[in-house]
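Support reply, case 0932

Customer input (verbatim):
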Amino acid sequence: MSSGRHKPDSATSKDTPKVVPKAVVSRLSLYLRELHHLIAAGHATTSSGQLGQQLGFRDAQVRRDLAYFGHFGQPGVGYRCDELVAAIRKILGTDREWRVAMIGVGNLGRALLGYKGFGSQGFRIVAAFDVDLAKTGQKIEGVPVFPLDDLPQMVRDQQIELGLVAVPATAAQHAADRLVAAGVSGILNFAPVTLNLPDRVSHVGVDLATELEQLCFSVANRRPEP
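Our regenerated output:
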């Protein structure tokens, strides 16, 4: 069976490379999700082969990805699921709570506020903001909604580090600029537009239409079975 037990300090070893390919980080999130499923199903251990098979990766790929961050394992035992979860969460930085501000409480924003997966992964939306004053002063899924002008003070008072943009494309850059000016360090953008942000602010875009285009490409170009 593939290597397994995690050495407690390996994920933060000084030998860890400074630059890790984005594809590796994306796969870490997939490994983490699958490990949660394995634990829920009662599995205490797993192997690189089993973990890779569930996700469509080769076992060597799993081992290479984890090797970026240290040595995990004990021959003959495999990865201990709970220890590997703790190690990956530490690598990703989700072993603590991240406080999030969201701009936009339209249909998408309300749906995101109702998504319980954020909380279980360590993300807490502590405040939402909107330019429509008719939407402010209420709570949606327990999250208070404030006028956008209150953003800087709330970021300071609530120690908010991340921002979530859930506004139309035409308003996305302005919303992101307000988050940057307020002092957030990272932005997740759900608007179908590319943001222009300073290098000091990390950002990720989620364009659902683009993801569907990628899916259509895969389906349209699928090789026929022999």
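We compared this against your earlier run and they match. Two observations from our side: The longest helix spans residues 22-40. The chain is about 40% helix and 15% strand. Please reopen the case if you see a mismatch on your end.
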